[in-house]
Design brief:
The complex is a heterodimer. By secondary structure, chain A is α+β, with helices and mostly antiparallel strands. Chain A contains two helices and 18 strands. Helices cover about 20% and strands about 30% of the residues of chain A. Chain A has a four-stranded antiparallel β-sheet, with no helix packed on it. A four-stranded antiparallel β-sheet of chain A has the order 8-9-11-12, with no helix packed on it. Chain A has a four-stranded antiparallel β-sheet with strand order 13-14-15-16, with no helix packed on it. Chain A is elongated. The two termini of chain A are about 50 Å apart. In chain B, a hairpin with a 2-residue loop joins strand 3 and strand 4. Chain B starts with 11 loop residues before the first strand and ends with a helix. Classes of the chains: A alpha+beta, B alpha+beta. Chains A and B meet through strand 1 and strand 2 of A and strand 3 of B.
């Protein structure tokens, strides 16, 4: 961009120089011409600016990120970078799935500048809240010795992140490497544990009333993490693997 | 550890009888991976990122 700027400026200077070398009679025509050149210069400038704004965002790829679909947008946050010695940082972006796309060329929309969640991986995320359009992020392991709160929420209507505090926060374990599940009542289910021990307890966060609960451990599956889980239409959660 | 071939990396669990099967797929099959995320959006399943580094290490040894 800098190069193009300098180049167009150089062209303009060149045109003015060539004007001066012509005679007086031609100066009126030339002044018209110079107006055109100036207009051209502004046009080029604005084109360069538009071009810079739509430069495609290339995210750093990672694992153990979260991908949350809210309305027509797939929000991607966090993760551990695939490349050694690199961190994902505050990278936060979405894919608009309302328009067709080719996996060879994906137009990611960057929201990194509004993200308050520290660089982390292994968190769990769901879509919930009173209007069912808020992203809830639970747990995860921060990088760079940063401190990370238990829950963050992202309002997709106002594009704003907030830390969610509840009165039970101190009693709630911060888990990593789990899958978040949400039911039809916007309750978030967090099964399993991977931190100091492996557990098989079920934490439940009501994302409307913002209160914590616990599920029964009777006949619970053995402790696990990095598993797959999915919410079935018959309101059962299917847990698979690891 | 079993190295998955791309052509049998996708399994379907029939929720009626809880039986597994490998579906017939066409097109370019993405490389096998883990620690990715999968989102079902309409009739599509979108797989984002993930890694296959351990698979590569295993293949090398």
């Amino acid at each position: 961009m800098q190069l193009l700027d300098t180049f167009s400026y150089f062209l303009l200077v060149l045109k003015f120089h060539s004007l001066n070398s012509f005679g007086y009679k031609q100066s009126i025509i030339m002044s018209k011409n110079s107006t055109i050149y100036i207009l051209w210069w502004f046009l080029i400038q604005s084109l360069i600016e538009i071009n810079c704004q739509t430069a495609p965002f290339k995210p750093l790829q990672g694992e153990l990120h979260t991908a949350t679909l809210i309305e027509d947008k797939l929000y991607i946050l966090g993760g551990a970078a695939n490349v050694a010695d690199k961190i994902i940082g505050k990278q936060f972006f979405y894919l608009d799935v309302s328009v067709p796309f080719n996996t060879q060329y994906i137009l990611w929309r960057d929201l990194t500048n509004i993200n308050i969640v520290p660089s982390h991986f292994g968190a769990a995320s769901i879509k919930g809240g009173a209007n069912n359009n808020t992203l809830f992020l639970y747990g995860g392991l921060p990088q760079n010795n940063e401190t990370m709160d238990l829950i963050y929420k992202f309002d997709t209507k106002t594009n704003s992140w907030n830390i969610l505090k509840t009165i039970d926060d101190n009693d709630i374990v911060k888990k990593i490497a789990l899958t978040g599940i949400v039911d039809y009542n916007q309750k978030m289910y967090l099964f399993g544990e991977f931190k100091d021990n492996d557990f098989n307890d079920m934490l439940i966060l009501d994302t409307i009333n913002l209160s914590w609960g616990k599920g029964s451990s009777v006949k619970a599956p053995i402790p696990r993490y990095h598993y797959g889980a999915t919410f079935l239409p018959n309101q059962h959660i299917l847990y698979l693997g690891k | 550890m079993i190295v998955l071939q791309p052509q049998d990396s996708l399994y379907v669990l029939d929720l009626i009888n809880f039986e597994w099967y490998i579906p017939k797929v066409s097109g370019n099959i993405p490389s096998s991976r883990y620690l990715h995320r999968a989102n079902v959006i309409g009739k599509y399943m979108i797989i984002s990122f993930g890694t296959c580094i351990i698979v590569l290490l295993y293949a090398a040894t």
